Amino acid sequence: MPYRNLLKLGAALGALSIAGPVAGASADAAAPAAAPAAGGMTYVDPTEPTVFADGSTLTAPLGQMLGGAVSVSGSVAGSKPGDAIAVQQVDATRAWATVATAVVDGDGRYSATWTPAHSGKTTVRAVLAAGNATTATRVAAASATGVVEGRALTLYQRARVTWYGPGFYGRKTACGKRMSRKLLGVANKTLPCGTLVELYNNGSVVTVPVVDRGPFRKGTSYDLTAATAQALGVRATATIGAVRAASPAAAAAR
Known about the structure:
CATH topology of the largest domain: Barwin-like endoglucanases
CATH architecture of the largest domain: Beta Barrel
Oligomer: single chain
Structural class: mainly beta
Shape: elongated
Strand order of the largest sheet: 9-13-10-12-11-14
């Protein structure tokens, strides 16, 4: 998926404009026929596997909507057909927790599926399951180096969003920003101003700050500024993925 940190691309988006409703009108009123269906999500993830130092490979999505199944496949160095594989995810305590198991097939590969229970950023890996001869050696080596080898995975909460802008350009937002066609950000009722939120839709990810208060429509989590909506391809009220970014430094490092 084309991950982009659009906080660094504000100037480039200045030339973008988004066809919208007249001042004061709801964005729903201007929804074109091609607008995303409510709840619709399309994931476009790279097909290339992550290749680790020991030759193991792992293919998994980089982003997944919470409630959907995550599929993982690949190969584990030192395994042979019939060996048990443990697919593990970093849990809240930063420890590895087994979330699925698989068996190596005749081609030396495995595949497994599980449904995550919590949103957020995590890491997944696959290792020989307990009881296989080389498991202890491989895990001990990873612990000794302090290197967490795995593939990053972001699990997004479903978030109902709208967008706004026309009729507010030139005004100050509740967070003190000047609303414009190129302002990247979201409005939220409770998150502190400046809080970074990662949004996902149709294979695109943007990380933007909270710049205003709202939305005030029941069941809606965020109002996207026009530039944010343009970047994500949101043309009307829609359901997209959202997760709170850990910190400005973490977001800038992506």
